[in-house]
């Protein structure tokens, strides 16, 4: 199919994503300018699969033959299973839904050959780490770790996913035709390929396990007014495990959950948190640690692939978030507020205005 579309005039053959990739590659060569392909559509429409096929076509056109070792394009394609383990989850619409935006930048030299690449990710859905509802699941990596070989389950102190609060808010633990135990081994294998060492892999899964235990820490009222303390022996035990896995001081960890530090010009003031606020600070920590882990993995992949500072042009492929429809959509509410701030009358808003409001919200999210 790639051979058929290679060099064919656009529109001459049936519509195909290879026709788009081919005209994009030719435009880059003939007009000496960088190009971008935007892949958009509803969740589950096939954007991520399309992005992978577009990359295969660009590798077919711009790949180097006879290169020793793994080529840039192979490495980009091989990074997908790692990104999907940490950034994809089962949703209502798609068993393998990307919960982040991805811009793959493929760099070309003056001969039109691929010389480097970079993967940039946007707006990982952090809330999923702590909050998930039926019939959806949390990120794949959590279930993979719980289904790991017995020695790893013991080493990372995990077990049945039903015993973790961040996983048992929904009754969905398995995905049809997906074997989490096999996916765990395949993800570790994919990590080997993208240059993540065994030691680093262990550290990654320690963080994943720590987040699961963090979610099982609960609080009750402390002695002082509006203060909190660990609720019971179970919570104390989970805190100990988190501190051990994250290699941090147990007391400092507890303080960071039960207290808030206010920075003032006259010095720092420590204020206790009530049990509800302590729960919020627990969830905030889990979300922050997870999104930093994700960013670290993306950086690691980029270092391993390698960039070409002398690239003549690039082809970017943007795989954006799939559109979804919720009963309560907080993003839409934020957009509505933004529209009101912009003094729009909501009843006379055109699609174009709505889109620019969405973009304003997106860029605000990105900058905060
Ligand atoms: N070209 C294809 N051939 C066969 N199956 C496909 C193809 N494209 C997509 N699918 C099927 O549809 C599912 C959803 O595709 P994909 O994950 O690419 O959707 P998406 O648009 O990226 O969704 P989201 O926005 O939720 O991430 C895939 O897991 C696969 O089973």
TrEMBL record:
This protein's GO CC annotations: cytoplasm; membrane; myosin complex
Keywords: Actin-binding, ATP-binding, Motor protein, Myosin, Nucleotide-binding
Gene Ontology process terms (BP): actin filament organization; actin filament-based movement
SUPFAM superfamilies noted in UniProt: P-loop containing nucleoside triphosphate hydrolases
The keyword Lyase belongs to this UniProt entry's keyword annotation: no
Name of protein: Myosin motor domain-containing protein
InterPro entries reported in the protein's UniProt record: Kinesin_motor_dom_sf (IPR036961), Myosin_head_motor_dom-like (IPR001609), P-loop_NTPase (IPR027417)
Myosin motor domain: residues covered: 1-368
Naturally occurring in which organism (per UniProt): Aegilops tauschii subsp. strangulata
Annotated PROSITE patterns: MYOSIN_MOTOR
GO molecular-function term, one example from the UniProt record: microfilament motor activity
């Amino acid at each position: 199919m790639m051979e058929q579309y290679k060099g064919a005039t656009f529109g001459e053959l049936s519509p195909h994503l290879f026709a788009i990739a081919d005209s994009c590659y030719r435009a880059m060569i003939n007009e000496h300018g960088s190009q971008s392909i935007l892949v958009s559509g509803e969740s589950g429409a096939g954007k991520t699969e399309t992005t992978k096929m577009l990359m295969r076509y660009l590798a077919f056109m711009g790949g180097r033959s006879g290169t020793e070792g793994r080529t840039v394009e192979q490495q980009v394609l091989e990074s997908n299973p790692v990104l999907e383990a940490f950034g994809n989850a089962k949703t209502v619409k798609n068993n393998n839904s990307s919960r982040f935006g991805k811009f793959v930048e493929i760099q070309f030299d003056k001969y039109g050959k691929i010389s480097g690449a970079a993967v940039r990710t946007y707006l990982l859905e952090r809330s999923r780490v702590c909050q998930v509802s039926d019939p959806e699941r949390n990120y794949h990596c959590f279930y993979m770790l719980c289904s790991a070989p017995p020695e790893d389950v013991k080493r990372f102190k995990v077990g049945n996913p039903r015993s973790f609060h961040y996983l048992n808010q929904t009754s969905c633990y398995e995905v049809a035709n997906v074997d989490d135990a096999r996916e765990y081994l395949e993800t570790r294998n994919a990590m080997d390929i993208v240059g993540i060492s065994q030691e680093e892999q262990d550290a990654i899964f320690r963080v994943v396990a720590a987040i699961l235990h963090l979610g099982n820490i609960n609080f009750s009222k402390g002695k002082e007014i509006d203060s909190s303390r660990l609720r019971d022996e179970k919570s104390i035990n989970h805190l100990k495990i988190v501190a051990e896995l994250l290699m941090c001081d147990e007391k400092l960890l507890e303080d960071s959950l039960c207290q808030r530090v206010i920075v003032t010009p006259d010095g720092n003031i420590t204020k206790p948190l009530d049990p509800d606020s302590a729960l919020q600070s627990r969830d905030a920590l889990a979300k922050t640690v997870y999104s930093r882990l994700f960013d670290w993995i993306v950086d690691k992949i980029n270092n391993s692939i390698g960039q070409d500072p002398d690239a003549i042009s690039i082809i970017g492929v943007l795989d954006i978030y799939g559109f979804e429809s919720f009963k309560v959509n907080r993003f839409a509410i934020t957009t509505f507020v933004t529209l009101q701030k912009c003094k729009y009358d909501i009843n006379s808003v055109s699609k174009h205005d709505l889109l620019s409001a969405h973009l304003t919200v997106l860029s605000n999210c990105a900058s905060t």
